[in-house]
Amino acid sequence: MEPKASLLLYGTAWKEDKTARLTETAILSGFTCVDTANYPTAYNEQLTGEGIAAALNSGIRRGDLFIQSKFTPVWAHAKDKIPFNPHQSIEGQIVESVQQTLKHLQVDYLNSLLLHVPFEDDKDNLIAWKVLETFVPHTIRSLGVSNFNLSQLEGLYADATIKPTIVQNRFYKETRYDSDVRAFCAEHGITYQAYWMLRHNSEILASSVSNTVAAKLNVEKELAFYVLILGLGGTQVLNGTTDPGRMVQDSKIIGEVFGDEERLRELQTDFDEFRRLLTILST
């Protein structure tokens, strides 16, 4: 049985030698979803695995965790940091990378694996996807994509036998907050995972609606921003905080807010205002 979907994922990118400690701390602080990648430029997947193992040794059950990783095509890796043999077929690259990920994370299955970025040739996206499908449902429970635009997503979705269930993309002004991708996701029951929020959305963080929600919940505006994104529906947020106090607070507040129907009704006008703000900023 799959663990209940969490609204927050702990993002392990750019944690370097602190990855294991921070991953363990996040899980013990209430995070049940962990996001990583077999992409040494930004992630230390092996240390993520050490952090997960430490949390499991502390009494957390594997069945209560949602562990998500990614396969990254050769072109997106730094040339000196490609973890698999780049001279083999796409199928060979994926098989080797998945095996590495399972070993790194010290698990025998993944809850989700994402195609980290599109291939340079869109035809290769489907070739890769057909390979990934062979791992479902035993080694990988579900598949998704990351950093895909609407055209790329539509093309893959149309030809996929096992449809993507997750899209993980940057949420910022330059892509008009992915309004077209999010609409496609909503129509097809795909979960939209947002990242790149805090450092790239100064206008939203300074907005009246962020300040209003922060005051209502008695939290910092950054957490209020997460609440607003989650209020769009069908969304999850990647949270990569390195502050143990924030890990506890973020997990607690998100759980309380989205587990309380009355509080959600009180925030509905703010969610509506946030949607209007995104439209205004996108024009």
UniProtKB/TrEMBL annotation:
Record-linked Gene3D superfamilies: NADP-dependent oxidoreductase domain
The NADP-dependent oxidoreductase domain, residue ranges: 14-199
Domain of life: Eukaryota
PANTHER family attached to this UniProt entry: ALDO/KETO REDUCTASE (PTHR11732)
Family annotation (PROSITE patterns): ALDOKETO_REDUCTASE_2
Protein name: Aldo/keto reductase
Keyword Transferase belongs to the record: no
SUPFAM superfamilies noted in UniProt: NAD(P)-linked oxidoreductase
GO molecular function, one term: oxidoreductase activity
Keywords from the named record: Oxidoreductase
InterPro entries (alphabetical): AKR, Aldo/ket_reductase_CS, NAD(P)_OxRdtase_dom_sf, NADP_OxRdtase_dom
UniProt keyword Oxidoreductase, yes or no: yes
